[in-house]
């Protein structure tokens, strides 16, 4: 039985408390984008702000810095050259935070694995791994770091599409024909929460696997996965439990896609529109009745 009915999802919405400030609302350190894919960092960053994080700091390739800065003056943007000298991200009850790494990374570049390993090793906060970093997560070092995080109680989340999930499955020889089983077995093998994206999205923490089937084929366009990573990263940064963040983020993403398609047609919806329609999806969840 899926406990994530409307009432439960509504309870999880991260409304700011009366005395909130930008730090108490949660900081997302978003390591995203590359010279080849600066747009993924922009989409993910804008989505994370819309999803409620108080502060989004984008760490990106120096060749992408100006592009990312230009899409949102409220984003704090820095080159990844400075990343290795920074203090690690530490989440506390008063100042929650999370790291999202990989959207728009170029899997062919050496910096991809370096930045991923650094985030997995150092961050005493939830780490979400997406896009171009998922290949490096499947490497010997990536798997070992992920397992260590699990043993130490530091949560990791991965958001693969079918192709990326097959790469994660390979070192463990896991069968890829059943998405529900694959989400669960990847979760157990790596010690992380898995969001296996597709027409139906399967979310597993290793114990259970839940199907989020509220999406639409209008979402099958470049960049919608980067938006999802920004949304889930934002919810993790606001202190939501990883499984809760994945269920709420995926459902709102699907609903925003549907509402965008109702207005714009299923042909015209773009990843930018999913970000634009997120407030409508949040408002509709907030106001609708039922369980
Ligand atoms: N505007 C941008 O800057 C964008 C950047 N992106 C970034 O581009 C990088 C590469 O991502 P890609 O996904 O293109 O490349 P990948 O090379 O990682 O995956 C695509 C390959 O996987 C296969 N595949 C199997 N199942 C699939 C499925 N369910 N969905 C998609 N592909 C599937 C495809 O046939 C293709 O060969 C990532 O870092 C990603 O974040 C993309 O998200 C697109 C938009
Ligand atoms: N046919 C479909 N029906 C419903 N949702 C879909 C469909 N195709 C893709 N999606 C959703 O769109 C998003 C695509 O993510 P992804 O493949 O990572 O794209 P990108 O890498 O271009 O950002 C996922 O959330 C996925 O569940």
TrEMBL record:
Entry cofactors: Mg(2+)
InterPro entries associated with the record: Carbohydrate_kinase_pred_CS (IPR017953), CARKD (IPR000631), Ribokinase-like (IPR029056)
One Pfam match: Carb_kinase
Keywords for the protein's UniProt record, in alphabetical order: ATP-binding, Lyase, NAD, NADP, Nucleotide-binding
Binding residues for (6S)-NADPHX: 40, 102, 161, 226
Stretch forming the signal peptide: none
Catalytic activity: (6S)-NADPHX + ADP = AMP + phosphate + NADPH + H(+); (6S)-NADHX + ADP = AMP + phosphate + NADH + H(+)
EC number: 4.2.1.136
EC primary class: lyase
Residues that bind AMP: 197-201, 225
Domain YjeF C-terminal: 5-285
Superkingdom, taxonomy of origin: Bacteria
Job description of the protein: Catalyzes the dehydration of the S-form of NAD(P)HX at the expense of ADP, which is converted to AMP. Together with NAD(P)HX epimerase, which catalyzes the epimerization of the S- and R-forms, the enzyme allows the repair of both epimers of NAD(P)HX, a damaged form of NAD(P)H that is a result of enzymatic or heat-dependent hydration.
Quaternary structure note: Homotetramer.
Family from the record: Belongs to the NnrD/CARKD family.
Name of this protein: ADP-dependent (S)-NAD(P)H-hydrate dehydratase
Organism: Raoultibacter massiliensis
């Amino acid at each position: 039985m899926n406990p994530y009915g409307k009432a439960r999802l509504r309870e999880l919405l991260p409304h700011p408390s009366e005395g909130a400030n930008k730090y108490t609302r949660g900081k997302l350190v978003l390591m995203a984008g590359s010279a080849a894919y600066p747009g993924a960092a922009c989409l993910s960053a804008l989505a994370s702000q819309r999803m409620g994080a108080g502060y989004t700091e984008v760490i990106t390739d120096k060749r992408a810095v100006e592009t990312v800065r230009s899409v949102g003056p409220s984003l704090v943007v820095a080159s990844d050259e400075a990343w290795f000298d920074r203090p690690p991200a530490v989440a506390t009850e008063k100042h929650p935070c999370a790291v999202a790494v990989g959207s728009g990374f170029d899997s062919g570049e050496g910096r991809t694995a370096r930045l991923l390993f650094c985030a997995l090793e150092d961050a005493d906060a939830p780490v979400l791994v997406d896009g171009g970093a998922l290949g490096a997560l499947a490497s010997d070092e990536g798997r070992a770091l992920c397992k260590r995080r699990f043993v130490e109680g530091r949560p990791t989340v991965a958001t693969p599409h079918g192709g990326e999930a097959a790469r994660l499955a390979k070192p463990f020889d896991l069968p890829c024909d059943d998405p529900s089983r694959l989400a669960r077995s990847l979760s157990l093998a790596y010690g992380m929460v898995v969001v296996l994206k597709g027409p139906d999205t399967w979310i597993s923490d290793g114990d259970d696997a839940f199907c989020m089937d509220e999406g639409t084929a209008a979402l099958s366009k470049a960049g919608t996965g980067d938006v999802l990573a920004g949304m889930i990263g934002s919810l993790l940064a606001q202190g939501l439990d990883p499984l809760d963040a994945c269920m709420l983020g995926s459902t709102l993403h699907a609903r925003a896609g549907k509402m965008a398609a109702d207005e714009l047609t299923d042909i015209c919806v773009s990843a930018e529109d999913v970000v634009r329609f997120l407030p409508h999806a949040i408002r509709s969840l907030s106001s609708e009745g039922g369980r």
